[in-house]
Amino acid sequence: MPFAGLGLHVLLALFCAFHVVRTGRQLYWLFILFAFPVLGSVVYFLMVYVPDSRLRRGARKAVTATARAIDPMKEVRLARADFEQMPTAQNQMRLASALLETGKAAEAATLYESGLQGPFASDPELRFGAARAFIESHGYAQALVHLEALRASRPEYRPDAVSLLLGRCYAGTLRPADARREFEQAIARFGTFEAHAEYAIWALETGDVATAGRLRSEIDKMTSRWNGMTRKLNEAVMLRLKAAAHGHGGMHF
């Protein structure tokens, strides 16, 4: 029996350690996991892994979306006030994130770029945020620099999201072959609704009606199983897809 308990602890610690490395957590967690048998793994699982799960992220997004619908600029006001009172890197990134989520992408991009000039120059969250902000403000070339650096230095960091942003950057910098390859790889590797939708948006905007039609069949299968929360979480991408269909392909999604 003691050996069975030891084996379970080792498996749990290895699982948590893999999560530490894959998600780019601070490496002191590895010491905690193996220096404090069982307890270290339990603490990591409850404090880091569970809050980081897709279910919790989805719930947080739904709550945030509801609050934003009631008072869209509340978080921007609070974040700006905190940053003006105490201009720390953390408050700067909070303000950049709030600006990005409320459509002020150009200002967000400036803040993210500023943060990347300091000691957090290689921080993956900042690079990812900067890339998103530049894409939303149509600075595809600038976004591409961040995404390619992120993929080269941290290939394990949010590979599905990075792949889709890269596809949009290649499209925005007039590299259609690279864009198609990136979207097709994203569908093959991850198979998410967002991957299908982003590929369909690109196909419609480039006049590839055949590809858009093929993707529509898969998208219809996915969306037919959605509940209200899932539909709300994917609302932004769906609106872009419908706009692309209306403006370019004449399809209905």
UniProtKB/TrEMBL annotation:
Keywords: Membrane, Transmembrane, Transmembrane helix
InterPro entries in UniProt: TPR-like_helical_dom_sf, UCP030959_TPR_rpt-cont
Top-rank lineage group of the source organism: Bacteria
Transmembrane annotation, as ranges: 27-50
Name under which the protein is recorded: Tetratricopeptide repeat protein
Lineage of producing organism: Bacteria, Pseudomonadati, Pseudomonadota, Betaproteobacteria, Burkholderiales
